[in-house]
Amino acid sequence: MKGFLKLLFSRVGMVSLGILLQLLALFASLWWFRDYAPAINIVSWIVAWGFVLYVLSRTGNPAYKTAWIILILGFPVFGLTLYLLFGGARLSKRLRRKMGEIDRTLETALIQDETVLDALRWHDPSAAVQARYLCRTVHCPVYQNTLTDYFPSGEAFFAQVFESLERAERSIYLEYFIVEEGEIWNRALEILTRKAASGVDVRLLYDDFGCIRRLPADYERRLEALGIRAKAFNRFIPILNSRLNNRDHRKFLLIDGVEGFTGGVNLADEYANLGQLRYGRWKDAAIRLRGDAVWSMTVTFLSMWGYVTDVHETPTQPVFAYMPGSVGYVQPYLDSPLDDEAVGRTVFSNMITGARRYVWIMTPYLIIDEAMAETLTNAAKAGIDVRIITPGIPDKPYVYEMTRANYAPLLEGGVRIFEYSPGFIHSKVFLADDQTAAVGTVNLDFRSLYLHFEDGVWLYRAGCLANIRADFDETFPLCREVTLADTSRVRFPRRLYRSLLRLLSPLL
Hints:
By secondary structure, this protein is α/β, with parallel strands linked by helices. The chain folds into 3 domains: 2-87, no CATH class; 93-328, Endonuclease Chain A (Endonuclease, Chain A, 2-Layer Sandwich); 343-507, Endonuclease Chain A (Endonuclease, Chain A, 2-Layer Sandwich). The protein contains 20 helices and 17 strands. Helix 4 runs antiparallel to helix 5 (76-87). It is globular. The protein starts with a helix and ends with a helix.
């Protein structure tokens, strides 16, 4: 009882209670008109079919539209209400203006060096197609003269991060989905506070929903008192709004505009296997860039800072000297749920269809639509070695069931699936043919691919590819390979449950 009261009167409890009261008020009003139920039912069915036609006419993911259609036709009043609140919302004038400012910032500040693109085209025309797509759709150039370092664990990542933070002289920019007080964050905060006191421009963007049970509600003010400029992204408030779905899942740590980190690792102890290991061993991955490509990450951060604060700025692009040891091509990219462009999904699809020998994937969630499943199985049927590593121990049971619900059709198509036996794998890594890779924040699930702000780095023949390959080679022996026989042994009630989850997964 004590724990329940603590949760109820916490911020997440109060916000959830506010949203629940709004829903109850909505359905109470429907109950008030219960005497007119026959007429309401007729009208709701007419309106429901009208909305079904509207949903079908809109552009977007077919699985997402199908899930909404089933919900609307199955429960017209309830389904229409949810769709109006969360499914069909368009951008307000204010949001369109803010997104336009971001787009202009990116287009103005990030200019593709055509000699780099021409060189990539000479090396590999198909790789140039991928690079050109990112240039044209989200204004993200491809670069040379960039050193890359891959970290196959949170422990390795944080060891480098603390060392790099100590070297900061001008600026430290952080943008994270999760920040949690503990050994990792306390150590980082001590360095950030010292650096801010010495005149370094220290800024932190954190997602309010991601941190709602991890940080106090007034954490922005606490950090401001330490000299750190901080903003919570998309405040989680007790008002029903479709924008509650759009979270900032990006992860950036940028130092002096010359060194940039991204990947799956958040700023919390569990990512370094500290404290109580609720999900077994936590495996994650991250990447560090040094050189020209960090400029793209810096502009991306500042564009989001401007989105949150309405203060838009673009610093002067630094001129990097030649980076000894830099090889290949590096292209940081971003993904926004507000531009109707599924960038992360397209990057992954292009890598799969462009592979000639193999595509290996690490993802914490495997919740995909029919098109992505077909892309994976078509590659496997063509003789490409397609392998996917998923967690052996779940962090969210129902999401784990959705992931496993996708196993059978992939296995039947020749895709090999491995579950990471030591625990939970949070890495988001694609590797193809020892030539290309993608490391970032994008999961293979609907939220990451369509609803969240995300980022990643696409790599072609970059220096860290050998280390990414080594990480896969060392991880496969730690996994249990899933077989079709495993999926056939699942009992009927669980298969039915998984089928329902799979059908509604675009909405969850």
